[in-house]
Design a protein that fits this description.
27% strand, single chain, three-stranded antiparallel β-sheet, four-stranded antiparallel β-sheet
């Protein structure tokens, strides 16, 4: 690891954010499965990581919207699945989804975070738009 490097590729499918002491899945659910996930699907994806003890851990979870916000980097011009710019560090491979499910929920809504526009917002958990989402699980490092 280079001195002062914020994101460290752990070589096991994870990336550690040394600034915020979080470990992220290197690829998101869209990259791993080749399809979008619903709110329920995002929770199933996280549960499967924990069942398999991915990278030796069983405390994976969906990120808080502020954790996604901390991951946003306007100067990083990475590319999503559609070759559009997303502002996420180059430690994460190209081809990701642009909008992630977050852990916060309130009744029929859940939080989502968009890496095109640096925007967190509420979305219906069962909406059609919500079906075009991905998730990038995280854990405290």
């Amino acid at each position: 690891m280079a001195e002062g490097e914020r994101f460290v590729d752990n070589g096991d499918g994870t990336v550690t954010d040394t600034k915020y002491k979080l470990m992220w899945l290197k690829v998101d659910s869209y990259q791993k499965k080749g399809k979008w996930c619903s709110w329920k699907g995002a929770h199933k994806f996280v549960a499967r990581l924990n069942e398999k003890k991915f990278a030796g851990y069983e405390d994976w979870r969906l990120p808080k919207s502020q954790e996604c916000r901390n991951l946003y980097d306007h100067d990083s011009k990475n590319y999503d699945f559609n070759d559009d710019i997303v502002h996420i560090d180059y430690a994460f491979p190209e081809g990701c989804g642009s909008t992630y499910w977050c852990i916060e929920e309130s009744g029929i809504n859940a939080m989502a975070y968009n890496f095109y526009s640096d925007r967190g917002y509420q979305i219906r958990k069962s909406t059609k738009e919500g079906a075009n989402m991905s998730c990038r699980p995280v854990r405290t490092a």
